[in-house]
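User: When convenient, might I ask for sequence and structure tokens for a protein?

AI:
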Amino acid sequence: MSEVVSLERHDAVAIVTVNNPPVNALSAAVRGGISDCVKRAIADSEVKAIVLTCAGRTFIAGADITEFGKPPVSPGLHEVLVEIENSPKPVIAAIHGTALGGGLEVALACHYRVAVKEARLGLPEVKLGLLPGAGGTQRLPRAVGPELAVKMIVGGDPISASDALKKGLIDDIVEGPTAGGEAFARKVLAEKRPLRKLRDDDSKLKAAKADRSIFTNAVAAMTKKARGLEAPFAAADAVGAAIDLPFDEGLKKEREGFLKLVSGDQSKAQRYAFFAEREAAKIAGVPDGTKPRNVERVAIIGAGTMGGGIAMSFVNAGIPVTLIETGEEQLKRGMGVMRKNYEATAARGGIPADAPAKRMALINGVVGLENVKDADLVIEAVFETMAIKKEVFGALDKYAKPGAVLASNTSYLNIDEIAKETKRPQDVLGMHFFSPANVMKLCEIVRADKTAPDVLTTAVAVARKIAKVPAVVGVCDGFVGNRMLAQRGKQAEKLLFEGALPQQVDAVVTKFGMPMGPFAMGDLAGLDIGWRSRKDRGIKSEIADALCEAGRFGQKTGKGYYKYEAGSRAPLPDPDVEKLIDETLQRLGRKRRAVSDEEILERMMYPMINEGARILEEKVAARPGDIDVIWLYGYGWPVYRGGPMFYADQVGLKHVADRLAFYAKETNDPSLEPAPLLKRLAAEGKTFAQWAQGAKAA
């Protein structure tokens, strides 16, 4: 008898229970246990029906992904599913929590499925760069039809139990999984229902067999956002095989697709990203068992773009917010923008029609800092100027209740300096949300010198509660993301002085998989912001300054590095910009040269990796994975490339270091010299991943 799977008999009904916390993943022991218990139940002449259920908080929530890439351990999932499907006695899957991936594939091999009403069912393998590899692409279309199967498999999102019932994925909604499953099994026996094997039932494929466009239209709708990704297309092909081929041949096609993806670079990157995100929520240097403080009410200071977006993130999670401004006018404007955003989302069908009113009702807009008095967490989102932020924190000391967490949403400024303004620096940290804050998933949590451990755990817990991905970083200019981005910005600018054009640089960066290039991004943010900041610091940047002097501030003026047609956000190359660059270079006595796409890619990516190495050495980030999570969720780094540090390991650190040294010499830029950590790892033939393992062991 397996320790993780047990069998008990309630007269004619055998109950097979998986108990492999936390999520009952399909490890080798679970597979072996299910196989053993099902065989024993079949061999027992007293048993007439078998119920497969799970202990704990969920049904089987997927494969054990730590086994991927390792030699297979018997029994394979396929063998177990064939045993279930070929059972001469009805097997009923009784589902609670989530039946995901391999868990849903197990349920699909059973003859019947029941679920509690809160259950969710899905095949999310595509999010790990994979496709379902145990018959999911062949059985699900037979259960629910190819249209919904494509949506679930290519999109990867689960469906509710009530939708599953409507579509025929489950046979009934029950009260409790074990008791409900057993009651349903008795009903099956009493009614002498036949065994329904999905593999033999093609009835729901008929329409798509007759009219292939039913399938192709569903695929087109689901893959239009899958730029650069392999898995969604491979998954769609596998579902297509269910329509075109007999079951066993379809299985073979699915298997080939799975094996190709599982050994490919994209899936490796996506699985790495999955683990890096989980790892990032673990805070280095915080004592085990540190409990977060209770956060029931949040105050946000500033109702501008950032403050409003942060407020929306909290009320979306049902947490009430006091939104504070200095005047009625600003408050009214901020509240109006949020309402408009919600109404637009509702009009698109993104949220229910009554959601805008419900969510706005959770926001109490007020004037005056004294209104922070009831908040457990106060987030300052005022203008990015040290003097203003210091003034706010100095005043917070007077009004915030003892024990309230005080957070600054700064993207660059020194949190230690800000914390000095209060008598409670232990309660102060940074919570850097990314714009637009109600959409972007990242929250950089900045640990200041005196931040208390429970304040850090509170910020991480709160970020997760509002569906953000937290990453803890240390204090330095620009923290992790913006500090690395500054290196890319510097090289992008230098490339213009050497002969590249904005559209060439941006095209290389977007082809790599980034959502936007640096120049289109500058136009979106507004070029006047950098111009003002340069003037304040007495710095010149001839090309960017010349654009601003010509009134080209980006999208808001219809012209920046690109031109924009009225009402359009699509950047169009502008001959005037090329002329302006030429004139500037002539004035400076510089000659344009042809710059290759390869050079552009290396100079966009490698200096960021170099800065990442410095960040690790300075312990501003605890792990390479934390840096990658920041880039994946804050800057749109393509998930199939795993993040800058993972990408560096794939390219090879020796190559990265050699190219940086080459460009440092060629462009006379000492900042491109390889960082000590990068140099050392390159010389030793090691990766950032190996360095992280060594740091963990130490």
Observations:
- The two ends are 39 Å apart (CA to CA).
- The chain has a mean pLDDT of 94.
- The CA atoms of residues 127 and 170 lie 24 Å apart.
